[in-house]
Amino acid sequence: MGRYLVRRLLQFIPVFFGATLLIFVMVWAIPGDPIAALAGDRVLPEQVLQEIRDQYHLDDPLLVQYGKYMGDVFRGDFGEDFRGRPVTDLMKQRLPITIRLALMAFAFELVIGVLAGILAGVRKGGFMDNLVLISTLVVIAIPIFVLGFLAQLVLGVRLGWFPVSGIQQGLRSYVLPAMVLGSVSLAYIARLTRTSLVENLRADYVRTATAKGLPRRRVVGIHTLRNSMIPVVTFLAIDLGALMGGAIITETIFNIPGIGRAVFEGVQRQEGTVVVGIVTFLVLVYLIANLLVDVLYAVLDPRIRYE
Amino acid sequence: MSDLEHIAERRLGGDPGSDLAELEPAAGREGSLYADAWRQLRRRPIFVISGLLILLLITMALFPSLFTRVDPRSCDLADSLLRPSREHWFGTDVQGCDYYARTIYGARVSISIGILVTVSSTLIAVVFGSIAGFYGGATDTIIARITDIWFAIPTILGGIVILRSIFSERGLLQVSLVLIVLGWPTMLRLVRSSVMSAKEMDYVDAARALGVGDFRIIRRHILPNAIAPVIVYATITVGVIISAEAALSFLGVGLQLPAISWGLMISVAQNRILTAPHLLLFPGLFLSVTVFSFILMGDALRDALDPRLR
């Protein structure tokens, strides 16, 4: 386990710095005037220009720029918006809302997704199996913003089951957006659980368990399911990236003042520094979450450690 | 195989490639896998339906004037926001443009970006993926590590940052470029692992013993046996990319007006979903059907090309 951890960490370091360097280079070092591009159509006052140049150390050589920038990031400084407010302030205010939304989406996709996967997997080729396969395919195919507007229009406006937008009604207002946000991953989780369950049900230990007279409930629920959950756990890490992209869209549609909505507003207001700051932060979260899940994967599945 | 690859392949619902070569008959009956697959596919309703839909969409992208004689850019403000009627099948938008014509013309952007991005990133992936998978060693390490770094940037997040920062004018080419840049790593991992398992086959050793050169071995012996999962994944990717383009345009970092694109149409429609839901419905429907067709096609191809499922 120790050796595996060390190896994983060593692999993580170049990926971490490589990915952040890529983003940094693409934002600040491509020929042209990055600040003009960040400001979009408007003309920035000289003072703001200079502040941005200082903030991102644009007068230094590239690698020094990047080094200083990463130093800032590690100290929790993600830059300022055009009015001089630190992006960190914005994130502190917005992040709890997004975390609440994401947790609900996670819970939703895990519970329903795994359940649907089990129902489909225990009887491969049966009615439930086909139903789950087809409906998940439909959910995967409908882009999240189309699905979001549809849900808002039908469940929110026409049927009035859920609040249409905003977060005025407490947790209730999060239900619909969380369902939309979790829907695509739900479909993947259902399919993943199904495939993995079908595969494991053919394993020898399942035959042994059945042969020694265990009831089917126990064979599937305890023996098989436990092993089938491993790929689902690792999927959750990859899913986080999609979830963050999805949060930007979902929060925009449902007018939820989370961190994703802040990215969208940054794009709309053409405040490039806000967009870059938040997205850099999200990519960091994504990278670290992936590392953690890698470790978790090794804990759950000993075969990975001895690879 | 690293666990990420493991998952990436799992997401495709199988373990593409690993056993494919084993089960395929050796040289002499070249292409028999594809002949078999074709015979099987023709009988599958899913394949036929998605195939026809894709053909229809491609025709729509190439010759939109076959479907409508109305110019999507000649608009009459007096006709603003009409509901669907006999004259305007899909109603009209704020500027009074015929929405049916605009929806039809929107296919061009989606289909072009989907295909352009998929073909380009597949080419990159096949070239570098086979080099990495075939030679192994230091070459492989370098290519694999660079891929890891690019793979670590999530598509939508990366797309927002890059498109936002680099381009102030964003057209089809700029958006495609960014999606290619963010899209090739997944594909490369697939090609690499597929090539790695194909090169272990005895016929590769046999070819080498006969003195066949590396390039010819890769082209004649390895790729034909390793490409099936890549074809499946590429088909699905077309749908995924179309969806990503629409999402980026929707967020305001993709294509810009006056371009005609489904994502843009939905973005413009979002403030009027209560008063004019048709503005959202039609581009949303076309977009979903397009993505659905490609994903369905990928599913059908996988069933046919993965002999273990037969």
Features:
heterodimer, A: mainly alpha, 0% strand, B: 310 residues, MetI-like fold, disordered N terminus
What this model shows, in words?
The complex is a heterodimer of chains A (307) and B (310). With 307 residues, chain A is mainly alpha-helical. Helix content of chain A is 79%, strand content 0%. Chain A contains 13 helices and no strands. Chain A starts with a helix and ends with a helix. The model of chain A has no long low-confidence stretch (mean pLDDT 79). The radius of gyration of chain B is 22 Å and the shape is elongated. The chains are: A mainly alpha (307), B mainly alpha (310). Chains A and B meet through helix 1, helix 2, helix 6, helix 7 and helix 8 of A and helix 1, helix 6, helix 7, helix 11 and helix 13 of B.
Summarize the amount of helix of chain A as a percent range: over 70%
Put simply, the count of helices of chain A is 13
Question: In sequence order, what are the helices and strands of chain A, one letter per element?
Answer: HHHHHHHHHHHHH
Which architecture of chain B would the CATH scheme give at its second level? Orthogonal Bundle
Outline the low-pLDDT stretches of chain B. Answer: 1-30
Backbone CA Rg of chain B? 22 Å
Average pLDDT figure of chain B: 77
Radius of gyration of chain A: 23 Å
Most extensive interface, chain pair and sizes:
A-B, 67 and 51 residues
Rounded to the nearest angstrom, the distance between the terminal CA atoms of chain B is 25 Å
Describe the main β-sheet of chain B briefly.
none
